[in-house]
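Subject: Sanity check before I submit

Could someone independently write out the structure tokens for this chain? I want to compare against mine line by line before I put it in a report. The sequence has 295 residues.
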Amino acid sequence: MHIDLPAVASPIDPPAPSFAHGAAGCVRVPASGSVRVPEGVTSAWMQLRGTATVQCREGSFRLGRGDWILLDHRSQPCVQSDRLGICMGLHFGTDALAALGEGANPLYAGRGRMCRDDMQIALRLWRRLEVVADGSVTLRNDLRPLLLLMADLQRDIATQSLRCPGRSLTQRAGLMARLQVSRLHLEGHPQLDHRVDDLASVAGLPARYFSRVFQIVYGVSPLSFAGRVRLDHAVRLLREGAMTLDQVAVICGFKHRGTLVPALRAHLGLERMEMLGDRIRSLASPRYPSPRDQY
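---
Independent answer below. Compare away.
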């Protein structure tokens, strides 16, 4: 089953009543189905069971149980669920964020993981909204509890945003939003050989300024961060067990396994005699991108 959310009305057309006054919508991705979000709509997704794949402007992402992702209005994501998956989504225009009220943290593009308590809260809120099981879109005038939950899941991002230069919270939030888009671009394309100029272009910032601010906010340079993302992707592929070291090395941008293995040992903090395979298999989930373990 495939579902297309309604496109945002043209500025010259009268606005649709369902999106007036900050109204937003919720949708459940059906099992073995997909949902496509049009341009101009911000969306947030929570994976409550199984897995889902998100294809969007920022790249490709796989959501496992407990993962969440928020994408901005330019992303146009297509979310595909597996046959056992339960993926719940919010979609809203810019006006809907006013429902959070003054003093609430802004929402940024990004991703992370929910703890068990947060998942239970999310489930209770979804059940209260009575989301249609077959994936039909349900419009609500008040999604404030779920929006506040999403803002709380981004509390580490909100803390990092305070490091952004700027004379006001509005300026800092605007700069943080640009950085988060470039960070998601890195996360969504782990196989690419990134250049600072290209990443700065994604963020819409001068290259030198982008590199300096990225280092200040995340505590690591853009290219070092890209290297960590690439190695985490390699760990994830090896843990799944469907590929050999040589295949993973090529997919992740290494020349051969001889360059990948030393990088993985350093990345995982292993001594020379420790077994790389045992360490990878012992990982319940990759360190990245847990919101409790920001770089």
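---
OP: Matches mine. For the report I'm noting this point. Confidence is low (pLDDT under 50) at residues 7-22, 284-295.
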